[in-house]
TrEMBL record:
Topological category with respect to the lipid bilayer: Multi-pass membrane protein
Cellular component terms per the entry's GO annotation: mitochondrial inner membrane
Transmembrane annotation, as ranges: 86-107, 150-169
Species annotation: Eudyptula minor (Little blue penguin)
Segments annotated as Solcar repeats: 1-74, 84-175
A UniProt-annotated Pfam family: Mito_carr
Record PANTHER family: RE38146P, SOLUTE CARRIER FAMILY 25 MEMBER 34
Keywords from the named record: Membrane, Mitochondrion, Mitochondrion inner membrane, Repeat, Transmembrane, Transmembrane helix, Transport
Cellular localisation: Mitochondrion inner membrane
Keyword Phosphoprotein: no
UniProt key word Signal: no
Protein name stated in the entry: Solute carrier family 25 member 34
Classification via InterPro entries: MCP_dom_sf (IPR023395), MCP_transmembrane (IPR018108), Mito_Carrier_Antiporter (IPR051508)
Length: 175
């Protein structure tokens, strides 16, 4: 099994040279990207950047689960919505979505930087030595807010997903 995010990130970052920002990998297709990465860097190349993706998922899931029930209970305690109502579940999901975006965005930024950096012949990144080095470089050069680039887009993607996932999970749990 390979990390599809490596291929996805290469393809998403690719654009015309006139508007390109950052390193360009110039793959022509998904299969071409897999083949090119594998030929140049082997199986390890397909997994490059996963050190940022794994903590991203772990932290995001933890934030989602830890905040949902607390937020749902909180809005019910204030009597904004009654206990067990779908509105309380949606409100809890919205708060949880914010928590997920806040906790996952730094990991998204680091993962993207690690996946998309140029590499030398042996597959070693030319910009970052790894997860911790990437965080330290971003923080020192761009400030802590550099780790939150794109948080609005992250919330627009993860907010609805979190709300709907938790809404359906809560409804299925009641059954």
């Amino acid at each position: 099994v390979v990390s599809p995010a490596q291929v996805k990130t290469h393809l998403q970052a690719q654009t015309l040279s006139a508007v390109a920002v950052g390193h360009q990998h110039n793959h022509e297709s998904i299969s071409g990207a897999f083949e090119s990465i594998y030929k140049q860097h082997g199986v390890a190349g397909l997994w490059r950047g996963v050190t940022g993706a794994v903590p991203r998922v772990a932290v995001g899931s933890a934030a989602q689960l830890a905040t949902f029930t607390s937020a749902k209970d909180w809005v019910c305690e204030r009597q904004w919505f009654r206990e067990g109502s779908w509105a309380a579940v949606l409100a809890g999901g919205m708060v949880s979505g914010v928590a997920v975006a806040v906790t996952m965005t730094p990991f998204d930024v680091v993962s993207t930087r690690l996946y998309n950096q140029p590499v030398d012949a042996d597959g070693t990144g030319k910009l970052y030595r790894g997860f911790l080095d990437c965080i330290l470089q971003i923080s020192s050069k761009e400030g802590l807010l550099g780790l939150y680039k794109g948080i609005g887009a992250v919330y627009l993607r993860l907010g609805p997903h979190t709300v709907l996932s938790l809404f359906f999970w809560d409804e299925l749990r009641k059954m």
